[in-house]
Amino acid sequence: MPRPRHFRRVANMPHVNYYKPRGVPLSVLEQVDLTVDELEAIRLTDLEGLYQADAAEKMNISRQTLGRIIESAHKKIADALVNGKALLIEGGPVEIIPDISSAGGSHRFRGGPGRGQGRGRCRRGGGR
Questions:
Q1: Quick check: 119 pLDDT over 80?
Q2: Which of 22, 24, 56, 73 sits 20 to 30 Å CA-CA off 99?
Q3: What is the rounded distance in angstroms from the CA atom of residue 122 to the CA atom of residue 125?
Q4: How many CB atoms lie within 10 A of CB 98?
Q5: Ramachandran region of residue 54, left (φ > 0), alpha (ψ -120 to 50) or beta?
Q6: Contact indicator for 88, 82 with CB cutoff of 8 Å
Q7: Cα 76 to the chain's mean position, in Å?
Q8: What is the pLDDT of residues 74-109, one digit of tens each?
Q9: For the CA atoms of 36, 38, 40, 42, what is the dihedral angle to 10 degrees?
Q10: Of the given ranges (40-44, 69-73, 105-109), which has the lowest mean pLDDT?
Q11: Distance between CA 50 and CA 87 in Å, rounded?
C-alpha cells in the first residue's frame, strides 16, 4: 500500500476552476486535471516569484516534492494550451490556510477525480 500524502498548504481554493478553449463545445473537448496543490505551486513560484525552497516551506513540503509538483503542473498546463484541451482545477491533499504564513485555523480537503465534486471530505484543525 502506498504511503499517504501529506497535506499541502494552500492560501485558498481557486475562485475559477475550469478553463476551456473559446468557441469549442465542452462535449467534444478532452480534459486535463490540475490539482489545487499544483496550482498553488505555480502561483508561488511563477506568479509571486518565490524560490522553490521558500515556496516549499510555505506549502509545508520538501523542495524536491515542490519541484515534482511544478514539473507535473507545467506539463499539464502546456498540454491543455498546446492541444486545445479543457483544464479542470480540483482535488489533491490540501490544507487551506488563508494567511499562509501562519498555521492557525485551517481546513483540510483530500479529494480528487472520482470523489464527488473533487474536494473530498473536510477536516478542520491546525495540526497534521
A1: no
A2: 73
A3: 10
A4: 12
A5: alpha
A6: no
A7: 12
A8: 999 999 999 999 999 998 888 898 765 444 444 555
A9: -150
A10: 105-109
A11: 24
